[in-house]
Sequence to fold (505 residues):
Amino acid sequence: MTRHARDATGQEERTDEDRPMPLAHEAEQIAHDRGRLDDRRLEQAQSAPLRVAMVRQAQHAYGNRAVGRMLSRVPNPALEAKPAIGHKTGKEVDAYLDASPFFKKLVADAVKAGKKADGHVHIYTKADFLTKCEAYLKGKENPNTGAVFTDAEATEFAKTVNAFQEASEIHVNEERGEAATTVHESMHLFAEASVVDKVGFNVNEGMTEYFTRKLCAEQTPAIPRSDYYSDQHKSVKKLVGYATEDVVAAAYFGGKLAELGAAVDKKAGASGAGTYAKWIGYMKLGKYAEADALL
Amino acid sequence: MTNVPPLPAGEVVPSFQELAERLASAVPDGDRETARSLLAERILPSALGGLAEHPRPRRLTEVVYEDLGERLAAAAPDERLDILHEAAEVSEIRALAASALGLAVARYLNEDPNAVPRAGVWLDAEADRWRQRPRDDIAAEAERRLVELEAWKERVQEQRPALYETRRMDAVNATLALQSARSGSFGTASGPLLDFLSEVGTPGQRLDIH
Fold:
């Protein structure tokens, strides 16, 4: 929770304590705001009120310490450069799964068969990621035009992407997303192969996010995870409450979707036949509240 | 300051106005009129748009009401109006995503009516209505929604960057689906539209982007 303090003029401002780590785009804004405060035109006398207002706005947004650094012009590479996201590597995710009493047994067969995240999670510089993403789009049809992506279209589209998966290879822009992005993407690798086709995109993402958050929370210290796939996650969390975590985990990691469906329909009672199918139907259409209301 | 009052017992489904009134009672007096208007005009119509077709309308109302109530109760009173402003932005992207998918499904089935028997849950009332309209009407509606979506992206990216980042993929998938609905091109798809194409037997190339 953000705490507040008052400056000498009684203006409420945010303190640096408890401030969440800035996302990449917030850091860009901070750097931009520092540039604005550094503008030499603000040193002119008639610009004083504007400068005061901008300082207060920045104090409120970023806290005293950060603004102090901006004003003193002490070089601060963290504000000038893109922050390192510190994406978790595939090797780290493998280690988290192996160390977890909950996950270890769920991925045991897959690991025995040679499945692992190590070597399959590729973290690139921004420039290299864009090149890789452009290559991924090459030859694919652009829904906007009906023709294959041109180089220029692929370049523009690649800028909107944080990561992409091609077969069993995960490609991530080191400047986008957050540390747990690669935990989520790696979790996809351990899902039973037929799950996504049977449950659809939204349930698959919800289950992946559910287990991502669980694995992140198990670490010491916990790996922070923002509210990605929040609707899908919330509905799957409700499903877990209804059908039990073990049954949902067996469906996701072991492909036991028929058992999940049977558990849901049984819990729904005498007139509950077909509840799971209806739930899947609503989830496919992104009607999350409608799906939740069935359980 | 009160928290959100529970819904009256029974199976009656309260009106949007009544729900808005109850939820807005958790917001400080000075913000209450704005809260009521956000709830009645932007949040509830979108969240409860499927009420008429749902097998458990009262339960659906409770789910939406309890979710909003919990979010309001978890916030400090002076932050509750902002919670509703954010909920309105979330409602809008959900509605745009649903509309994008429906229009893309409608465009596909308009061009390939033989696929209708295989469309299953994808052919909901909205998609069915658009499917029967001329192709140019579907494209024009997709264009109109793309403009709305671009406005949403620009506004939320600037005003609520953290929300934008976590909802970015909803916007990307909706953009691609609307582009397909406008162009009639389904050779490449992402997200739920790819599920639909797979189920009707013409899976496009997967854009597995995050």
Q: What stands out?
A: Residues 202 and 257 of chain A are 15 Å apart (CA to CA). Confidence is low (pLDDT under 50) at residues 1-22, 34-52 of chain A. DSSP finds 16 helices and five strands in chain A. The first helix of chain A runs from residue 24 to 37.
